[in-house]
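User: Here's a chain of 323 residues. Predict its fold as tokens.
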Amino acid sequence: MNKTFLFEALHAATDEEMGRDPKVLVIGEDVGHYGGSYKVTKDLHTKYGDLRILDTPIAENSFTGLAIGAAMTGLKPIIEGMNMSFLLLAFNQIANNVGMLRYTSGGNFHLPLVIRGPGGIGRQLGPEHSQRLEAYFQGIPGLRIVACSTPYNAKGLLKSAIRSENPVIFFEHVLLYNLQEEIPSEEYTLPLNKAEVVKKGEDITILTYSRMRYNVLQAVDTLVDQNYDPEIIDLISLKPLDMETIATSIRKTHKVIIVEECMRTGGIGAELTAQIIEQLFDQLDAPVIRLSSQDIPTPYNGTLEQATIVQPNQIVNAVKQIC
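Assistant: Prediction complete.
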């Protein structure tokens, strides 16, 4: 076991897969000699060369198109968005090409493509750099969406995403790169379509993902001291949702709270609520509670920024209310 930062886990996954498969390459701004804005590709250009760790101009639509063409010809590109918000400039390529080409080509083309990079609400990065894009991408047919949350799952999930024959949007949170934990020294992969039961419990199911996993864990420390016994599930797979794991939990607790950093309107929590009500309505003893970020551009002001995000005390109060 090695103690590893999350950005190092992503670096190791990329390095291992590039060493394993010569078709894997990285495309993005400053991924080469600079090593990526969060050092996920640090020094890889010296090992694999400037054509496999390809620095691009500031032109997201263009280099996303380049990666799509490369994938169609059999390569396995990893697109790094310096900030995932910037990939809105490539939304046409992602929606009309990445999601559709396997279908519109009658299966003649595969898109083994990973689009990864930092997203979410940081610390005073301003509205344009604090967007939660999982809601933007979830409605696009043909995409799989994954959100890592620990060094362990970041490495295992990224390796699986790179090996996938279909496109994966891979969300990392800008505030989790310096998270550190021990991960196995031997090779491992993790399934892209499975949620993780972080803590077993009997009283209520709390569904969350990405950075909000840690706000939930803070809240649960308080709740356990007050004799509540919540079950925590990290969704990990945002599309498709692992409804099997979710259903097993709800059939046990009969109550559910969703905690997300995504927008309330049209967010992951909204889709998750719809599926729970469609599939598990008779199992619920109370309405589903959604705790989401407010539907406003994220303020630059630090105090206002915190006021837009779900805080641990709000989670504690919601559990007490529903229980």
